[in-house]
Amino acid sequence: MTLKLHCFGESGNSYKAALALELSGLDWEPVKVDFFGGQTRGEAFRADVNVMGEAPVLVDGEVKLTQSGVIQQYISDKTGKLGGAPEEKYEVLRWVLWDNHKLSSIAGMTRFLMNFLPEQHRSADVIGFNQGRLKAAYTVLDAHLDGREFIVGRNVTNADISCCGYLFYPEPFGFDRADWPNIDRWLSNLQGLEGWKHPYDLMPGSPADRA
Amino acid sequence: MTLKLHCFGESGNSYKAALALELSGLDWEPVKVDFFGGQTRGEAFRADVNVMGEAPVLVDGEVKLTQSGVIQQYISDKTGKLGGAPEEKYEVLRWVLWDNHKLSSIAGMTRFLMNFLPEQHRSADVIGFNQGRLKAAYTVLDAHLDGREFIVGRNVTNADISCCGYLFYPEPFGFDRADWPNIDRWLSNLQGLEGWKHPYDLMPGSPADRA
User: Are A64 and A100 in a shared domain?
Assistant: First the structure.
């Protein structure tokens, strides 16, 4: 049975689920969420799909899961892939949680504020504050990746897929690969994986649609 | 062997680990982290304890774990407690991730900005923006708790312990229990659990020490 992922191209959190599905080799198809038309903020979406009002949502028959980190765990449980070795499970979860707390959450919001929110609603203080927090996160990740090909162990895991969620997007939010050599090399490693695709090639929806 | 938790009273993320240790009945003791003296930002802490520069850190013999959600998972694996029923594991993880992304991360930062950062460094725009995000998070949690005693299933799980991380603190950050009746009732349920303690009673360090 084909898994369905409710997602949209601009969402780095959706990308984490889509990339995990693609790299694990599962049969899946995207269902476009009309985020920019307000779908996730509507009562119907909250009542029927996700009380949290967020994408992605994975549907596998009777199973419906939300939160990208949960979907990643489900994919690993189902396929045996991307979870790392058994003794690495806490280390993989550690970086998924750190990413949700310190990296993707702030990167996604800052990218939204700088690119998708109407200019008159943007606050330079808020953007600057969040870029400062992002710089601290890049510093942690770049230091950890010194001498490593992937975040945990020797192969790609959900830790990598979580942390890279927003880092391939072209829209500016205060991240330049050239500033972070270890992160840059690691992102190239991910791009070199068989099956890797850019978010705008993997999911429907991109800023070009609304131009 | 007594587990050691590197923590400090003001840290809601530390509280999540400390409360899980206490409610699970494990033998543990706190080791105070001098956050306000800069310990977590120092090179020695990053090199020896946690590259992420964060508390809490759990030490169990040769095992050293960071990220409150990882420590919670470890405690559940070790004791069989607080993880929910096997079929609830994705739902527990879902709320732990949501909390890291949307609730504790923002509550902790906003409380820091409003109470612990020198006044001249505070930005009303940044505080207001984050309080708006927090209000959206309280709305999601309050709606989910309608008709429920705990977040997942009928008993306390790591989902509850994660989401309550910052909600018992007295310092203002834009949260008033009286505004959110389902959250208020749920927090009372947690306070009624055998072994429940307030963060300042469970861990060393509180604003009173620095007054």
Answer: no
The angle subtended at Cα B177 by Cα B173 and Cα B179, nearest 5°, is 95
Question: Per residue in A157-193, pLDDT tens?
Answer: 999 999 999 999 999 999 999 999 999 999 999 999 9
Nearest to A53 among B94, B105, B140 (CB): B140
ipTM passes above 0.90: yes
Query: Do A90 and B129 count as a contact with CB atoms less than 8 A apart?
Result: no
∠ Cα A164 A169 A173 (to 5°): 95
Same domain membership, residue B109 and residue B78: no
Distance from CA of A62 to the nearest CA of B (A): 13
Given an 8 Å threshold on Cβ–Cβ distance, is B67 in contact with A97? yes
Structure token pair of residue B160: 């509850």
Map tokens 């959706």 to a residue.
Answer: A14
In a domain, B119, yes or no: yes
CA distances, A58 to each of A3, A5, A50, A64 (Å): 7, 5, 11, 6
Q: Which of B72, B97, B103 to mutate to test the interface with A (most CBs of A within 10 A)?
A: B97
Looking at the fold, whether A90 and A183 belong to one and the same domain comes out as: yes
A28-51 residue pLDDT tens? 999 999 999 899 888 898 888 888
Domain range holding B127?
Answer: 86-191
Closest residue on chain B to A130 (Cα): B126
Q: Examine the domain organization and report whether B93 and B177 are in the same domain.
A: yes
Q: Do residues B92 and B110 share a domain?
A: yes
Do B78 and B159 belong together in one domain? no
> Which residues of chain A lie closer than 8 angstroms to B72, CB-CB?
none
Q: Does B11 touch chain A (CB under 8 A)?
A: no
